[in-house]
Amino acid sequence: MNQPFMGLNSRSLMFSGLIAGVAMGILSEIPVVNCLNCLLLAWVWGGGIAAVFLYRQYENKPPLSVTQGLVLGAAAGVVGAVVGGIASLLFGGLTAAFSQSLNNLVGDNSNALTSFFFASGFSIFRIIGNIFLYGIVGAVGGLIATGLIWKTPMAPIPTQTPPPPGPVS
After folding, report:
1. What is the four-CA torsion angle of 83, 88, 91, 94, rounded to 10 degrees?
2. Contact between 18 and 79 (Cβ < 8 Å)
3. In total, how many domains does the chain have?
4. Could you read off the pLDDT of 100-127 as tens digits, one per residue?
5. pLDDT band at 160 (very low <50, low <70, confident <90, very high)
6. pLDDT for res 15
7. What whole-number distance in Å separates Cα of residue 156 and Cα of residue 136?
8. Would you give the distance in Å from CA 117 to the centre of its chain?
9. Which of 51, 105, 148, 168 could form a disulfide with 72 if both were Cys (CB 3.0 to 4.6 A apart)?
10. Angle at Cα 142 formed by Cα 125 and Cα 54, nearest 5°?
11. Residue 159 falls inside a structural domain
């Protein structure tokens, strides 16, 4: 179970991807909070960054490579897409019920619950599309985390000093 994958501890990879992905998926679907995703999928980028951060907290090792950051971010993105799809069904049902009760108060006869059931059938296609989209954007978030935020410090460039002058004869 704890076999390394691309130099990553698979247990830490799983935990960091799951935690960051669940947070990403839920925050991406909560009404009002999900508006931050309008800013170029900010929760998804943040989930990829959080996955790298969590992995670094679990593993006290040298900084990660860019490829490892891509893997961590993509794993969080895939988990986030699935969790987000499930959360959208939950929050979609709540929104449809709320909309239906408002329509009843106002006297509108349109049926919001029918549109919810139509949208939930469409949700499986949305989950499949989001697996690719969130995986890619999460990978970019992991890339940003490993390449810019927690990058490997560069070793100083050795300077060569000229040898001291020999004795003058």
Report:
1. -140
2. yes
3. 1
4. 666 666 666 555 555 555 555 567 788 8
5. confident
6. 95
7. 34
8. 28
9. 51
10. 105
11. no
- Quick one: DSSP state of residue 64? P
Quick check: is 88 in a domain?
A: yes
Locate 18 and state its tokens: 């799951």
- pTM value? 0.76
**pLDDT score for 90:** 79
**Residue 154 included in any domain:** no
- Max mean pLDDT range (2-6, 54-58, 108-112, 119-123): 54-58
Tokens of 79: 């988990």
Q: Where are the alpha helices (DSSP H) in 37-65?
A: 42-58
C-alpha closest to that of 57 among 11, 12, 22, 4: 12
* Displacement of CA 127 from its chain's centroid (Å): 15
DSSP state of 7: T
Q: What is the pLDDT of residue 49?
A: 95
Q: Name the residue range of residue 53's domain.
A: 10-149
Distance linking the first and last C-alpha atoms of the chain: 73
Examine residue 66 and state whether it is found in any structural domain, yes or no: yes
